[in-house]
């Protein structure tokens, strides 16, 4: 499955151009949705039956708007819970830290940190972001993908094993951005202007790698989704969440 997904991307001889441009835009953060929109556009083409070649590098405004909704899926399931956790900490946890002894302060901080970390891990392993993008493309709208539906779908009876397989196949891909990110502090230790130039290059490579991982990952989830359809385990139609 991973080899097939990689083959789809590399069938376009200019795949590296899309990765390089998306990484460049991702460095600005404001332009990050452009890369996400490119992935959504490619996923749409894949669902229609023509995954190759990759979409042309045009119409950035539309890509940005499409990608914004895709990024909002990550916001709902990752950033929003983080904000809620921080709110609970400052409202309740901070009070406990101030009232308790020094030995208890660290335990309270660890409690909130571990709880949030476990949530992120569950969200990542469930593949809720990728499932939300599938829902976004199939529904041609952002209503269900920004609700709790992708999370319920990730743990749906009989279907969760297929989604877990997709996540398992995609895990090796994340070695690329993780390795690059881990190398950035090492580059900065060199010192001088060369260190900052190297850090900028490695940051660009990190966003390139992240875009590449997401591009291939969506191909993996697309294939798993086809398996669900073959097994008559497809998702409920739009507007039917039951």
The first-to-last residue Cα distance is 30 Å
Large-scale geometry: globular
Q: In which range does the helix fraction lie?
A: over 70%
Estimated structural class: mainly alpha
Low-pLDDT residue spans: none
Give the number of DSSP strands. Answer: 0
Could you give a short account of the major beta sheet? none
Query: What's the overall average pLDDT, rounded?
Result: 87
Radius of gyration: 20 Å
How many helices does DSSP assign? Answer: 10
Q: Determine the strand fraction and express it as a percent band.
A: under 5%
Descriptive overview:
- The protein is mainly α and 242 residues long.
- 76% of the residues lie in helices and 0% in strands.
- The chain has helices at residues 2-10, 15-26, 32-48, 60-99, 102-126, 128-139, 149-154, 160-170, 175-188, 192-230.
- Helix 6 crosses helix 10 (192-230) and helix 8 (160-170) runs antiparallel to helix 10 (192-230).
- It is globular and about 50 Å long.
- 29% of the residues are buried.
- The model has no long low-confidence stretch (mean pLDDT 87).
């Amino acid at each position: 499955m991973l080899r097939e997904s990689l083959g789809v991307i590399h069938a376009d001889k200019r795949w590296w151009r899309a990765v390089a441009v998306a990484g460049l835009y991702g460095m600005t953060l404001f332009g990050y949705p452009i890369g996400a929109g490119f992935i959504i556009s490619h996923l749409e083409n894949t669902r229609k039956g023509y995954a190759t070649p990759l979409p042309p590098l045009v119409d950035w405004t539309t890509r940005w708007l499409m990608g914004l909704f895709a990024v909002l899926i990550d916001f709902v399931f990752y950033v929003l819970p983080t904000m809620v956790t921080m709110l609970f900490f400052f409202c309740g946890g901070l009070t406990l830290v101030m009232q308790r002894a020094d030995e208890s302060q660290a335990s309270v901080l660890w409690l909130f940190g571990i709880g949030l970390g476990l949530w992120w891990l569950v969200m990542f392993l469930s593949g809720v972001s990728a499932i939300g993008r599938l829902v976004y493309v199939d529904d041609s709208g952002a209503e269900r993908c920004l609700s709790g539906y992708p999370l319920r779908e990730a743990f749906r009876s009989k279907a969760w094993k297929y989604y877990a397989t997709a996540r398992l196949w995609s895990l090796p891909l994340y070695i690329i951005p993780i390795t690059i990110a881990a190398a950035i502090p090492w580059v900065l230790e060199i010192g001088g202007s060369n260190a900052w130039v190297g850090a900028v290059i490695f940051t660009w490579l990190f966003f390139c790698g992240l875009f590449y991982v997401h591009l291939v990952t969506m191909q993996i989830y697309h294939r798993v989704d086809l398996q669900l359809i073959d097994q008559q385990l497809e998702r409920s139609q739009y507007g039917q969440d039951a």
